[in-house]
Every structure is written in structure tokens, then in C-alpha cells.
Amino acid sequence: MSTTVETAGSSVIVAIDGPSGTGKSSTSKAVAAKLGLSYLDTGAQYRAITWWMLNNGVDVGDPVEIAHAAARPVIVSGTDPTAPTITVDGEDASGPIRTQEVTSKVSAVSAVPEVRALITRLQRSIAADATGGIVVEGRDIGTTVLPDADLKIFLTASPEARAARRSGEVKGSDLAATREALIKRDAADSGRATSPLAKADDAIEVDTTELTLHQVIECVVTLVEEKRVPA
Ligand SMILES: Nc1ncnc2c1ncn2[C@@H]1O[C@H](COP(=O)(O)OP(=O)(O)O)[C@@H](O)[C@H]1O
Ligand SMILES: Nc1ccn([C@H]2C[C@H](O)[C@@H](COP(=O)(O)OP(=O)(O)O)O2)c(=O)n1
Q1: Pairing outcome for strands 85-88 and 75-78
Q2: Which of 25, 53, 109, 203 is surrounded by the fewest CB atoms within 10 Å?
């Protein structure tokens, strides 16, 4: 099966991967908005399917059950970077997919090959429909979903910086517990057999530990502009 997504004119396909808290979502949304590109949060799709399974009696400890149920929910992602949306069977899922329960189960659900095959197909079709170009963020975009992307970025940051950023988002959260949970999820996402979290060989690595979000956005905007194909 071909994995090439055709683009026309000055469109550009940007893949941004990396572990949690490195700034993928904030950077991708800002870069897409600034350059008039679409935006896709693939983590939100894995969270959405996990949320649906938890709500529909699927035992998320059982990969066989997960695989059987994988095709049942209809997941739709809106790709406007200024107002990204996600629905499951027509219901707005943007709030419930961020709960601690979903966060703690999403690595197990997203490790199941049938889930990845379905979501990967959906992601490729969204990218193919984004004729003006798109920024797609996740864990396996540069390696698996869009290996022919025009630009691949791999964001990193120290676990301490990532935990501080994440716990800054949740009032009263415990920094040490957040750090441990992040490290555990990184290990699960990097260690799974099917398209693990990994840097593509041709990705540009940006360590954001000592950078402000503004600096990261400016860095990626410059890299995209260099790659943009003239109309
Ligand atoms: N370079 C940075 N410096 C400080 N805070 C940042 C930086 N990048 C992102 N953040 C903040 O860290 C949190 C996590 O960022 P996010 O973009 O959601 O990361 P990811 O999508 O990689 O999990 C957000 O609150 C965001 O504003
Ligand atoms: N392309 C992707 C994106 C996310 N996932 C899985 C693995 C991640 O732990 C979860 C949640 O991703 P998400 O980007 O929402 O996580 P963070 O916001 O960075 O904490 O989904 C994946 O397997 N492949």
C-alpha cells in the first residue's frame, strides 16, 4: 500500500513527534495558525477511542477485546488550528478525553495493532484532504503515518521540564507523581511492537528544555518556510 499523500501548490506536510509535555500541541497549533495550515492532534484520536472503550464496557486490559471493538466508534477530527475539535459518534469528546482515567489507559489501547491500523488510515485520509497543507502531531507520524512528510520535527525536553509543564496545567497536582506517570507512559509508548514512539532518521530534533514556547514556534515556522514548495 502506498503511504504517499499527494500535495499541490505551496502546501506542505509537517510531522511533529515526541513524548508528552515537549510542546507538540502548543507548537503545532501555533505554527499551523500562523502559516494557514490545517492541524491534526493524533493523540486526541487515540484518547477518543480509549474514552469510547471505557464507556462501552470494553475491558481495556484485554487486547483481543480492544481489537474486536476498534472499528465501532466513529471518530471525527476538526482540523482548524484555532478551534480543533474531536467527536465520537457525533458527541463532543474534547473534555472527557483529557481525564486522568483516559490518560492512564491510552497507552494500552493505542498499542493494539488493529487500533493503530484504523487510526493510521483515518490520519492519512485527513492529511490527503488537507490540500493547503497540514501539521500533524503525535508519536509515529514521521516514521509510520506520513513517512514522506516534507518536514519532520522530533521535540524533546528533560523529564523534569515536561513534568513541570504538565503539572502546571493541573491545579494541586503532585510534581513527582506527574514525572513518574510521564516516564511510565514514555516507556510504554516507546516499547510497543507496532509503530512505537521514535524519531525518524530524517527528523530534526529540537530540545525544548531551555527554550520558551515562543522560541520553539519561531524555530519551527522558520523550518517550515524553508521547506515550503513554491506554488
Ligand atoms: N518550551 C516551553 N516552555 C514552557 N512551557 C511550554 C513549552 N512548550 C509547551 N509548554 C507548555 O507545556 C504544556 C504542555 O505542552 P503541550 O503542547 O500540550 O505538549 P505535548 O503536546 O507535547 O504533550 C502546556 O501547558 C504548554 O503551554
Ligand atoms: N501518533 C500517536 C499519538 C498518540 N499516541 C498515544 C500514546 C500517547 O501516550 C497517547 C496520548 O497522546 P497525547 O499526544 O494526547 O499525549 P500528551 O498530550 O502528549 O500527554 O496516545 C500514539 O500511540 N500515537
Answers
A1: antiparallel
A2: 25
Q: Which residues pair with 76 in a beta bridge?
A: 87
Per CATH, domain 13-225 is 1.10.3720.10: no
Average pLDDT, the chain: 94
In this predicted structure, what is the pLDDT of residue 171?
78
The domains of the chain are located at 13-225
Tell which one of 17, 25, 26 to mutate to probe ligand 1, the residue whose CB is within 8 A of the most ligand atoms. Answer: 26
Q: Is 46 in the pocket of ligand 2 (CB under 6 A)?
A: yes
> SS3 for 119?
helix
| Nearest ligand for residue 28 CA | 1
If DSSP codes are grouped into helix, strand and coil, which group holds residue 144? helix
pTM: 0.95
Distance CA 169, CA 167 (A): 5
- What parts of the chain have a pLDDT lower than 50? 1-9
How do residues 5-46 score in pLDDT, each as one tens digit?
444 446 899 999 999 999 999 999 999 999 999 999 999 999
pLDDT at 2: 41
Tell me how far the alpha carbon of residue 28 lies from the centroid of ligand 2, in angstroms.
14
Please provide residue 196's backbone torsions phi and psi, each rounded to the nearest 5 degrees: -70, 165
- Per-residue pLDDT at 18: 98
Q: Which atom of ligand 1 is nearest to the CA of 27?
A: 17
Q: What is the ipTM of this complex?
A: 0.98
Mark out the alpha helices in the chain (DSSP H runs).
24-35, 42-55, 63-69, 100-110, 113-129, 159-169, 175-191, 213-227
